[in-house]
Amino acid sequence: MLNKSFTACCLVFIASLLQAQSAEIPRLAGGTPDISGIWQSMNNANWNLEAQVAVQGPLESLGAIGAVPSGQSVVHSGKIPYKTSSVDQRNQNFANRRTEDPEAKCFMPGIPRAAYMPQPFQIFQTDTDIMMVYQFAGAVRTVYMSNHINAPIDSWMGWSNGRWEGDTLVIEVSGLNPNWLDRTGNFYTTAAKITERYTLLTPYHLNYEATVEDPDVYEEPWTISMPLYKRVEENARLFEFKCAEFAEELMYSHLSRENYFRNLGIDISGDSDD
Hints:
The chain is α+β, with helices and mostly antiparallel strands. It has helices at 2-24, 84-95, 97-100, 248-252, 257-263; strands spanning 37-41, 121-125, 130-134, 140-144, 159-165, 168-174, 179-180, 187-188, 193-202, 205-213, 222-230. 19% of the residues lie in helices and 24% in strands.
């Protein structure tokens, strides 16, 4: 009897708490939740969407700098349901992650990775329009809330058609370039379609959920979810992060004069410009 009474009290408390949170949620004049602001994840999903233990990073000479931290899976089923034919590609990606990760090359992170990069992003919202701006690589995307069309061309950030389902913003993303989902090498192809769900839990907590479909890679659709946290410090803002110049040595060093001749087996170390 006591257990039943205790359970009933807990349910009443939780219901009251949820009702209080709902009442606190800021809304625009049209009634939709106001999700504008600067948001950031606080997990290790960008290292690996699946669970992992701490391991050495891809560049041993850096020591503990760049080492991979432990993290729990953000995948609902725990594991990504790869087709057997796709596992080798994921493993190859992991082996070559130091040079082949699109993040290392300063490519735009794509969806859903942009939401859990270790850098913030900002949502701009009106009653009819939504835009998301990401600090990493200066990526930007528009969420089209009306006049939905198919993606006219593939791109890094894809084409986003949005709608409200109650208090949840649902965005269907297509037209994506092939991309990685994390630094481990989990990936998708141009066949991918992503369905995102943004639900404001409190004025400072946003639940993010993304369902990934790609019949070329996975046995079935799968879903990740995580909380996003609002940056509330004074003068919170996005800063410039133009990383293209950081990637020049990685991507183009083979085109330098020295490396060009070295690849031809010609020693120019004694040459002079005089």
